Backbone:
């Protein structure tokens, strides 16, 4: 899949997922945007191609992804830049 299509899928999925998260939850979990980002990127790398299902899966990840792993992932993303995963797949 092309880069432009991945950008389009990422953008659509991110907006769909973010709309489902309350302002309270965003305030209580300031790293929630990074967690959505990581989940969506991981799915795109695996070849996902439906923005609705990507968004749903990202929201499920927010609920089921252990908090300690989320914090570790957040630290990694912040330390290495949001767009650079050094070849790792989370």
Residues:
């Amino acid at each position: 899949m092309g880069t432009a299509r991945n950008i389009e899928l990422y953008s659509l999925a991110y907006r769909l997922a973010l709309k489902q998260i309350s302002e309270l939850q965003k305030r209580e979990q300031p790293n929630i945007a990074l967690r959505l980002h990581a989940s969506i990127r991981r799915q795109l790398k695996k070849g996902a191609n439906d923005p609705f299902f990507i968004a749903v899966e990202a929201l499920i990840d927010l609920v089921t992804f252990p908090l300690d792993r989320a914090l570790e992932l957040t630290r990694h993303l912040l330390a290495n830049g949001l767009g650079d995963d050094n070849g790792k797949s989370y």
User: Anything to note?
Assistant: The chain has five helices and no strands.
